[in-house]
Amino acid sequence: MRRRPVTVIQLNEFMERGQGKNQHSRICMLISLTAFFWFFIILVHSGRGGNGITSQLLETVAHKTVPEDEIFKQQDHHLSPARTRIENQRPQQQRVKQSYPFMRALRSVENKSDPCGGRYIYVHHLPPTFNEDMLSECESLSPWTNMCKFTANSGLGPPLENVESVFSNTGWFATNQFAVDVIFFNRMKQYECLTNDSSLAAAVFVPFFAGFDIAKHLWGHNVSVRDSASLALVDWLVNKPEWSVMRGKDHFLVAGRITWDFRRLTDQELDWGNKLLLLPAAKNMTMLVVESSPWSSNDYAVPYPTYFHPSSDSDVFKWQDRMRKHSRPYLFCFAGAPRPGKPESIRGQIINQCRNSKVCKLLECDFGESKCHSPSSVMQMFQSSLFCLQPQGDSYTRRSAFDSILAGCIPVFFHPASAYTQYTWHLPKNFSLYSVFIPENDVRNNTSIEKRLSQIPADRVRKMREAVINLIPRIIYADPRSKMETLKDAFDIAVEGIISKVTKLRTDIVNGRRDDNFIEEISWKYALLEGQALRPHEWDSFFTKPKRD
Known about the structure:
The protein is globular. The protein is built from 21 helices and 11 strands. It is of the alpha/beta class. Helix 16 links the parallel strand 9 and strand 10. The strands form 2 sheets. It has a 6-stranded parallel sheet.
């Protein structure tokens, strides 16, 4: 026989016994029920004020960890009916805010006495096979170069001699352009807001040398070998409690190579790279690369390393003053080689225009020994020029763009993905303040670069050069073995960018905001428009996604 609720039995029996008996007992019971009802109401309201048993109950609910598959859902789905009734009487925003395991980290910014509030980074302690073992086997990191000398000095490489007085006396190194993995790793060791308490972390750093790993296996290895470390990393991460907080959306890693090395679309042996950035779990993480994809949202571009790694603010200020005073006899210059195998490349036209100009300095490069491989020769040419041409190379971007900024030379870009849609954390949105843009098709149609540049008024050139020189701190990586006093370098700005990204995501989750209309294949537009409505853009034609055969 089904058992009826106890309260119903009592009430029915009371009503039956009351028929024909003294009505006084019925009134007493009604008074008792009324008193019980108001006692319950008072109890609930005292809980809302933060006192009493109800407050303790709600506080217990607030500290429960939301299951991984429910992280983006409302708390009401997890509560028992009784708790739901209590919670429904609380303000909606307060109820939701207490639902997520990252709330302690999100609220830490409110602690004004803690300079690290909202800035803590938790670093995963990965097995050494993912990082330090690679440094121990540095001679095998590249089939073309012994990387051991470039991993020395915390990844800065060997010190540069200043025989021709091109550099300042300290802080200059022969840094490999793909060394960001280890430089960032060593800079993170000096970060002032590291924590061993992941519940305080504004973001979680994964110190995997992804760039070194793929460089070691790009040539002569099958797809299984190329993918093995990435798959092992993901398997390790997803089994850690930190992963379940946001399913990896608060995790980030660094790879000092271009994004295309990590986006292999098929498992055919002839396809390039590995598939790290296409793994389902890895898509949740953010990866910092020296060149990002305009059609993807899980990678952000950070500057290539230059040769300058200062130890103090004064090192930077002295270099900036020197670049302001430097004589610049050439209107423009170019260092590079043609790309005869790429018919769409404009490098051939640029080299021809430079050769035929009396105000252009040309440093032709080839695959043998040349002055292009000499840091002093490249920097000396950039320091002697007002404008430095930066066309695409094998991909959209070039290290040379940052060397030119370091030399106080105004960069000239021919494709927006060479800088403007890439380094949105490090370079101004208004690109005309520090650079010149000449569309590639203009060069193909025989537009004179010399004429275009010579038409820029001298006063504007001075302002642009000053803007370029002021950018120097933002595009260099300070020596990881020291700490600049007030200036923020490329590392600092990248970390701030990551924290801002994760904080915004967490805040949106708490407030129930979702962008269901986000279109990943036009990711490049979002940073440019900064929350404005999507609309046709003058650069649309540059970003037509190539179709695979």
